[in-house]
Amino acid sequence: MKKIIILMFFLLTLGGCYDYYELNDRAIVIGIGIDYQDEEYVITYEVISNNVDKEAANTKSYTITEKNKSFPVALELTSDAIPKRGYYSHADLLVLSEEVAQNHMEDILDYLLRNENIRETLNVIINENPKELLAKTSESLAVVSSSINNAIDADKYSGSFILKKKYINMAQEILSFGQDAAISIIDINKDKIKVQDLAIFSGYKMVAKLPKEDTALLNLINNETNNFLINYDYDGKLFANSIMASDIKITVDNHEIKVSGKVKAEVLENQPNFNLKDSATLRKIEDTFYYVLNNQITEFIQKLQSTKSDILHLGENYYIHTRDKNKKLWQSLKINSDVQFNINKKGIIYEVEDAN
């Protein structure tokens, strides 16, 4: 009996060791770039270097690039070119070129969803040349993919100019009825990570670029920001607010696109030196910024209507409320934006009546 127990334990232990590789025997892929040049797919992996002094303060990386007319073959060739067995579970960035975003998303999307080496939770960005981007390592940017991901995570605290987009969410938006995708265009210039524009899609194709400031507005409308800056010039003197919280809803019917809700802001700059303790003055400021904010929202949706890019999922919104699969109706509807603007009274000595 004891021999049987020992034998079973040995078999279980052996099974756990099967297909086991020490991390030192693996090459950790941290970022993946996809481009299309001269009728070939160009695949770039950023790989963590394990030929580093163990006492070194930072990790370093290098890139491997292969290409082929077939997208699956190009991926396989790149994987085969890694000196050691590839390890993909730490890959956290997918960089698509503008050429891929404009003309080849349909070719790669389904395959990427099925590929076991591509994590669904990768952050996705767009860059003109993914190969060059992933190779822009330096003393301050030892691992490009990790540095970009850190910037994406930190951006929500510094203006919300980056759209945090996971691969699975991008794929869902492209493939789902009444939705379109939006992805940030990011580059590195002199070791600084720079947000350039917001790429917006219609179906599988990138159809336009919006300024990065529109990314912050999109994050605000989607209630995914806590630092949206909004300013107004009073005869050359700046009054600035930071919107720290939003509760915005959109409904679409046969007559209009209705944007409603409220935002809470904090005063950043009061160059006109308004008396914020005076309730009447405060209401006038809130009325001004109510107009400014709702005008920005209206103009933003009008841009989407003109480009036919449904990144606010208005076609899906209309279907949910009407069960009518008319994903184009939103493109011609009037816009009624009515988002209340409230300035946080905390810190003001005298109590003032809430505007609502």
User: What is the gyration radius calculated from CA atoms?
Assistant: 25 Å
- Please state the overall shape, judged from the principal axes of the Cα atoms: globular
Order of helices and strands: HEEEHEEHHEHHHEEEHEEEHHE
- Rounded to the nearest angstrom, the distance between the terminal CA atoms is 79 Å
Q: What structural category do the secondary elements indicate?
A: alpha/beta
Beta-strand residue percentage: 25-35%
Average pLDDT number: 88
In total, how many beta strands?
13
The helix content, as a percent range, equals 25-40%
Largest sheet data: 6 strands, mixed
Q: How many structural domains?
A: 2
Low-confidence parts: 1-22, 349-356
Counted by DSSP, the helix tally is 10
Describe the protein in words.
The protein is α/β, with parallel strands linked by helices. The protein folds into 2 domains: 188 residues; 131 residues, 2-Layer Sandwich (GMP Synthetase, Chain A, domain 3), CATH 3.30.300.210. It is 33% helix and 33% strand. The chain has 10 helices and 13 strands. The strands form 3 sheets. Strands 1, 2, 3, 4, 5 and 6 form a 6-stranded mixed sheet that branches. Strands 10-11-12-13 form a 4-stranded mixed sheet. The protein has a 3-stranded antiparallel sheet with strand order 7-8-9.
Please summarize what this structure is.
The protein is an alpha/beta fold and 356 residues long.
Search tags:
GMP Synthetase, Chain A, domain 3; 6-stranded mixed sheet; disordered N terminus; globular; 2 domains
